[in-house]
Write a structure and sequence with these properties.
The chain has about 325 residues and is of the alpha+beta class. It contains ten helices and ten strands. The protein folds into two domains: about 5-185, Serine Threonine Protein Phosphatase 5, Tetratricopeptide repeat (Alpha Horseshoe), CATH 1.25.40.10; about 205-290, no CATH class.
Length: about 325
């Protein structure tokens, strides 16, 4: 178990990478994501120095965070410097490095992404996110066989991972019996204005709370921000302190599509419990602030094998931090 100082650094690194993901998703990274990316790396460096006890769980979290940072840096270079498609839904082009990056701008970032992903795979042999990082970097480098093996591993670890499935279809290498699932991804649901199907059983070995926060990107677009917490109590603290400021009040918004939050509680091998916090906002007495009614939510029930601080996860085709 990481000490408090290390935990704070890991959570900060994860939140910074979440900000990077936001910039990549909506603005192609531009300059806004470079600062958070550098901050995430600094936090990982400091956490590694402070992990004097050599805690393996902490070391694994640092390795996954480093792999994510390296994957984002490569993706940014491929998109903004080489002007090639490289995203989290369909992967990238085979041998984009050789075919499109004539100046070799992305070569050191490609090599770094491959090294970081392999190190993270060794540190955590069950993580479902890192094989995608490796598959994308190997695809970009031109290693078709290596990329296929990485995507197959990603699909083995998470049979619902549509990105790995899409990449294997691109290589005409999708294993038999892996037809596209009927579940709707977060992004597909947002596109159609619907609520995605959530797997009834929580997979993986950690318990955690996932807070899905709705927000406006601009006047025409909205998105979800996915925040991970090691306990429901931590998720409640965030919601009470931050969401009330955003004004999640059904009495003031008849549409209800651009703000609000949904809480999902994951326990290993058990059904995922979902709670619409928006519907639980209660008007406060005159002069007070509206608050979420948590009375029917198991806030203080401990989670088995709680998610290590700062560990990102791949859930329903989105990387969550």
């Amino acid at each position: 178990m990481a000490d408090d100082g290390v935990s704070v650094l890991l959570v900060r690194a994860s939140r910074s990478l979440g900000e990077c993901e936001y910039w990549l998703r909506h603005f192609g990274f531009e300059d806004g994501g470079l600062g958070p990316l550098a901050d995430a790396r600094r936090c990982c460096d400091e956490a590694e120095r402070k992990n004097v006890l050599g805690d393996t769980e902490t070391a694994a979290t640092i390795a996954v965070l480093r792999s994510t940072a390296a994957a984002f840096a490569l993706r940014h270079c491929a998109c903004s410097k080489v002007n090639c498609d490289f995203d989290d839904a369909d992967g990238t082009l085979l041998d984009g490095l050789g075919e499109h990056d004539k100046e070799g701008l992305s070569r050191p970032l490609t090599e770094q992404a491959i090294r970081a992903a392999r190190a993270a795979l060794n540190a955590d042999p069950e993580d479902a996110l890192v094989p995608l990082h490796l598959g994308h970097a190997l695809t970009w480098s031109g290693d078709r066989d290596g990329a296929i093996a990485a995507y197959e591993e990603a699909l083995h670890r998470d049979p619902g991972e549509s990105c790995a499935r899409s990449c294997l279809e691109y290589f005409d290498a999708l294993p038999a019996g892996h037809s596209s699932p009927n579940e709707m991804s977060w992004d597909e649901a947002r596109m159609w204005g619907e609520e995605p199907h959530i797997s009834e059983i929580s997979h993986g070995r950690h318990g955690f709370a996932l807070l899905r926060v709705f927000f406006e990107v601009n006047n025409n677009d909205s998105d979800h921000r996915f925040l991970l917490f090691s306990s429901v109590a931590d998720a409640r603290t965030y919601a009470d302190e931050r969401l009330s400021i955003q004004g999640i009040d059904p009495a003031e918004d008849d549409e209800g599509e651009d703000d609000g939050a949904v809480l999902h509680i994951h326990r290993p091998g058990r059904p995922v419990a979902g709670y619409d916090l928006r519907s639980r906002v209660r008007a406060a007495p005159e002069g007070g602030s509206s608050r979420v009614d948590w009375s029917d939510i198991p806030v203080h029930e401990p989670l088995e094998s709680p998610l290590p601080p700062g560990r990102p996860l791949r859930i329903n085709t989105r990387t969550c931090f």
